[in-house]
Amino acid sequence: MQYIVTKQEMQVIDTFAIEYIGIPDIVMMERAALKLVKQIEKVNSNKGRILIVVEGGNNGGDGLAAARILLERGYAVDIYYIGELTKTTEAFQLQMIILKNMNISFSKGIPDKDYSIIVDGIFGVGLSRKIEGVHKEIIDALNSMEGIKIAIDMPTGIDATTGDILGAAFKADYTVTFVLKKLGMFFSDGIDYCGEVVCTDIGLPRTAIEEIQPKIYAYDQSDMDKIPKRYNNSHKGTYGKVAVIAGSKNMSGAAFLCGKAAYSVGAGLVKIYTHESNRTIVQSQLPEAVMMTYEEYGGALACVEDVLKWATVIVVGPGLGVDTTSERMLYELMMRAEVPMVLDADALNILSNNIELLESISVPVVMTPHMKEMSRLIDKTPSEIMDNRFEIARDFAKKTGVTLVLKDAKSVVTDGGEQSYINLAGNNGMSTGGSGDVLSGIIAGMIAGGLSLAEAAKMGTFVHCMAGDKAAEEKGKYAMLASDILNHIEDVLR
What we know:
By secondary structure, the protein is an alpha/beta fold.
């Protein structure tokens, strides 16, 4: 697990480490500089000339320390200290004194030279004001230059919490950030302006992080051990029975993707309830699934009766449609189910007009809306939700008692508690039809296998996106399909 912090949380952590634990900021600055140098050397294969541009804060101090180390190692380095700030930090002043004592001179502007590496050490995580004047001119000039661009801790001009551009921003190929990743790296303009994020440890004690308990966290490969182990002494009933209510007339794809996804994460049995027109194609694509179909209202209600007797987990909604029959099926399931439910796609669209149903349901529920579906559920615009996604998601989950997966480029999972999960895996190739159907099947399959709803929602989102990353490696982000994500689940879980 890894914490993701806002700029305010990172500032509190730094202050705690310096003032309460007693680690001098100059010590952390030297460690940060060494990690920055390591990344510069890694990407500067031709050992070309390096430009480091700084201002008078600790971010600039990191840049000065890195410049000194690189010069000592024989690199050609130019340092441009903008010097427009009236105040400088003590650690920055100390780095300046060291460089002057070594007779290292500074440039009075951006030299007219070719650079292999351009380093942004102007402003760091704490920036809250708009970039303008000479700083904007310099950032614009740096962005127009050739060379690999590296930002220290956070690209200048990107809000470390929201990811928004504050007037102007340095567009980095790499961002070398320290201690923890910052929330703004994964939203808004921050996603593109940070480039590849390299998070490095600079020896800050874990107690400094635990002292504030950041509110947002993510999973990494080490969290895969949260998936329950399979027993040698087991049978298909051990791993649960997933009912998939999906697919209106001639809409077989959603039912197939959802059902196979549940099987792919280890569900013991999957039974697909769908329109009769989908029978042949679903049976040919997924012969392992049991099926029950309907053509009219009475047959649909018969399917509901079977679901209520048979399933240990119910997923409802993918490709289901929003007609009277679908509405009645959802109503009966929500009023009478005695096992956990996963509500996705058209189940959410139906529910948006009958939100009071959530007050009557007596079983645990996972809801998986994307931004537009969430907008319909709570009568807020997608942009309003995106601007305040964590608080809105947490409040909705707390009020309704559900586990919410708010889907986006970086999905958020919450059960209404103080901490929220953010999914950092995945790629833009997953923005394709059917991807959400795969996710709902994965979550249902993991609930069937023994995970709690909250854990299944988090781990399901993580596995889904790691499979998407493997699919992108094989197919490319333009060509990949939801079925490619599905086919790579086995690689993630192997």
